[in-house]
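Human: We require from you a protein record containing the residue sequence and its fold in token form, and nothing else.

Assistant:
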Amino acid sequence: MLYSTIKVATYKNPICAAFSAVLLLSMTSCVSNTATVHQNRVNATTANTSDYCQSQDLEATHKNQNTQQRAMSCMLAQLQHYQQKDKTAQQQYFAYKAQAWLNYAIHKDSMYSRSPAGLEAAKSAEVILQALKNGSENDLVLIQDISASSALMRPDLWATLSALKDSGGIISAPREIAFSEVALIWAATDQCEHNSRQAGSQFRMADRWLEQAREAFVNTHDSKASVALEALIVRYYEQYSPFDANDDRCNGQVLPTLDQI
């Protein structure tokens, strides 16, 4: 599977993809500089590309990519099927979340990162895609604990995210909520590994996605629901604020539910 491939190949021959940390919506990849390097990359992997790619996918666009890159590209292509308007909001949300995780994994690998964050992201994407293909996305949790490679930072944004999920905000903004969630985790990891300046762009991105999700919710609900959302945000903030990682250390975080107050 893809996760096994990345785990084997990460420290030997990282993906040479050039990915912008500012955009979660795009993915590009580049070709190895020499045939020897390309062959070494292929030999360093064990993934069966057929797990994600049909025979026609190996033509043209993907023919110069190594096994790892082709699997990534084909996973992204498969996720598009679940992002269409004829799918349920929950299917769309998880498909966009898997896309964001893949983009995160590609970015970490392109930065030659030895952090486990990229491997966790790839695994998360693969688990989601398999659930979507099996029709078992209802078994996936909507409010997921933060992994050990990240932390709870910006409790105000996390509070908004959880409140929107609890209020059915995924129905009106599945993409925005999915992207904001991964951006928050990405930002905290960057702050722990590097500095607040580098993490700032991801926090700002998460903020923008959440503002769009909040606006979509307000536009599709009455004033009573909007007031209830604001009250829920406050409750979640009170719950999350004591866990704010002010020391910039990433040790993960179990997100308590409101009934644990």
Q: What stands out?
A: The two ends are 40 Å apart (CA to CA).
